[in-house]
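Entry for the shared binder. Reason: the reviewer on the internal report wants the predicted structure included alongside the sequence.
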Amino acid sequence: MRKLCVGVFIVCLVVPNIAGIHIFPFVNLQKYTYAADDTVTQYEIRIVDEQGRELKLDPRAVEPIRPHKITDTFAEDYSADERNRTFEHIFWEVKSYREYIQSQPKIRRTALEFPEHDIEDRWTYSELEKYEAFTTVRIYKVNKTFVNDNTAVAIEREQVYEWSPDGLISESDTQ
C-alpha cells in the first residue's frame, strides 16, 4: 500500500509537468502555471553625462525607488509637479551615490577573492571613471515581445521622459 501511495504521488507530480494538465490537489505544481503575455512592458531609468552617454541606473543609488517599479502610474497619475520632484530626487541621490562610490578606496581584486555577483546593474569605480558629470535623467518604456513560441525576444525602446536640474526637458506624446 505504501509503494502504491508513493507511486501515485510521483505520477501526480510528473504528469502535470509533462502533459500540462491539472491534477487535484497539485494544480500549482507545474513548471509554468501561468501563461505569460506575448508582450511585457517595463521601464528603464538611465542617467546621462555631459557627452550624452547613458548609464543604466544602479538600483542601490535610489533606495526608496526601484527602477522596475516605475509603471504607468508614474506616467499617467502623477502631476507634472510630482514627476519633477521625483526626477529631482533621483538626480540628486544618483549624484551623491556616485560621490560615495568614487570616495571609496580602489581595492585591487586578487585571484583568491570570490567575485561579486553580477545580478543587477551595479556601478563600479572604474566604470564611473569613464563618465563625465551627470546632467540628465531619462526614462525609457521598453516593450519586450516574445516571438516564435518564446524562442526569441524583440525589444523596442522608446524614450518617455527626459529631465535635467533645470526642469522637465521633454515628455513623449506617445505614452
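Summary line for the report: The chain has two domains: 1-33, 36-104+120-171.
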